[in-house]
Write a structure and sequence with these properties.
Blueprint (H helix, E strand, L loop, with lengths): L1 E4 L5 H13 L5 H18 L1 H12 L11 H10 L2 H21 L4 E6 L2 E9 L2 E5 L8 H14 L3 E5 L5 H10 L3 E3 L3 H10 L9 E3 L4 H10 L4 E2 L7 E5 L5 H12 L6 E6 L2 H14 L4 H10 E5 L3 H11 L3 E4 L13 E4 L5 H6 L25 E9 L1 H17 L3 H11 L7
Parallel strand pairs: 1-11, 4-5, 4-7, 5-6, 7-8, 9-10, 9-12, 10-11, 12-13
Antiparallel strand pairs: 2-3, 3-14
């Protein structure tokens, strides 16, 4: 891991590193965008013919008949799992569902102004596609994290796509009662979900993380199909002066093992703790090839001059995962995907079983949004109803605003009501 100091001779280097961290994001997508554009256009134009060709080439699909996973296959996968793993999946699903229910917004109306009732309706999306990675590490937990909030929201049609799905992923689908599951991945899967092909109807929104090709495809189709976010490599920041080196290093290694491009940062005011964490992380990653590579490439330990500076830097980075020392530290956190408090809150607990979603903003997007939630699967429809009394109370003011904007038709529509002698509704 690289050690930098924000004061003294290291200040200039630290400034450059922090500026680069703030600019991180989707630049890597540009390298694969030409290939992704060709694949998406091909699937959009030729439908199943192109989709199946790519599925056989990239996903190892055995035959067109194997594209759709049957309910029997999902049930068999569930039955084949060790009972302790079935219990773990069930517990995780219950935790995620409970949390999503707490998040669900409600419909309401308000009549605090005489003659005017306003409110909102909460309605689920009609259909969604959940992308579940199955490359370096199959992720049945991602199926739970994407499908359960959609179920809680009331989405009627939930489509799962995953290339070479592991037995645990199929079992998780059975646990949730999923009925539409395709052995499909990559940019071609995103194209099929966006535009529809003979074998798969289009969806209203696509959720879930993926590799560069998947993320680039989501960016490409975002104007034709809603997406959740552009998820990049995993990120972890730990900002601590009180933690132990073993706890801090273990979390850094845990998140680093996701991807060689994962970002792992420790921020502290303590030189001694910084050195201990570097040594501990090196020791703990010695037999973990991916984590060791990620820490060598993107592992950073930042020693700051004060706690205030550490907090400022943390918010500038806007990390996907953030660990802090105490609940009182929440007061200064403004930019983070998900926050973990204290030594017992191991970040992998949030990846699986806590309840909050593990699909989180990366690349600094925690500046503007949080993680995937039930809110991503509903739409809020606003409602307003006037009586004649309400129009008479507010109409002239609204008409003045319309006239100030030069929209005379708007003003006349209001005056038409004001000049009506008796109410018609």
């Amino acid at each position: 891991m690289k050690l930098i100091r924000t004061q003294g001779r290291g200040k200039q280097s630290a400034t450059a590193v922090l500026a680069a961290l703030e600019r991180r994001g989707g630049a890597a997508l540009d390298s694969v965008l030409p290939a992704v554009r060709r694949i998406v256009a091909d699937v959009r134009k030729r439908g199943d013919r192109a989709l199946l060709r790519y599925a056989i080439q990239f996903d190892g699909l055995a035959s067109p008949d194997a594209l759709r996973v049957t309910k029997e296959e999902m049930a068999a996968a569930w039955k084949s799992l060790d009972p302790t793993l079935r219990d773990a999946l069930s517990t995780a699903a219950a935790q995620i569902r409970k949390f999503a229910k707490r998040q669900l917004p409600s419909s309401w109306n308000d009549s605090s102004f005489p003659g005017l009732t306003t409110g909102q309706l909460v309605r689920p999306l009609g259909s969604i596609g959940c992308y579940v990675p199955s490359g370096r590490h199959p992720l049945p937990s991602t199926l739970l994290m994407t499908a359960i909030p959609a179920q809680v929201a009331g989405v009627e049609r939930i489509v799962i796509v995953s290339p070479k799905p592991a037995a645990a992923t199929l079992a998780a689908a059975h646990l949730l009662g999923v009925s539409e599951f395709y052995r499909l991945g990559g940019a071609h899967a995103i194209a099929a979900l966006t535009y529809g092909v003979e074998s798969i109807r289009r969806v209203d929104k696509i959720t879930g993380p993926g590799n560069l090709y998947v993320t680039a495809a989501k960016r490409l189709v975002a104007f034709d199909c809603a997406i959740d976010m552009l998820a990049g490599p995993t990120e972890i920041v730990i900002t601590s002066d009180r933690g132990t080196a073993s706890d801090i290093a273990s979390d850094l290694v845990a998140q680093a093992e996701h991807d060689p491009e994962a970002l792992a940062i420790f921020i502290t005011t303590r030189e001694d703790l910084a050195q201990e964490v570097i040594a501990e992380a090196k020791q703990r990653s010695r037999n973990n090839v991916t984590a060791r590579e990620a820490l060598n490439r993107n592992g950073i330990v930042i020693i700051t001059s004060s706690s205030a500076e550490a907090r400022t830097i943390t918010n500038r980075i806007a990390p996907e995962h953030l660990t802090i020392d105490t609940p009182s530290d929440l007061a200064w956190v403004t930019n983070a995907g998900s926050v973990f408090i204290g030594r017992w809150s191991a970040q992998p607990m949030g990846d699986y079983i806590s309840g909050p979603n593990h699909t989180l903003p990366t690349g600094g997007m925690a500046r503007v949004r949080g993680g995937l939630s039930v809110n991503d699967f509903v739409k809020l429809i606003t409602v307003q109803q006037y009586t004649q009394q309400g129009v008479r109370a507010l109409g002239l003011k609204a008409a003045l605003l319309a006239q100030a904007e030069g929209l005379t038709g708007h003003a006349e529509a209001i005056h038409a009501r004001l000049n009506t002698r008796r109410s018609r509704g």
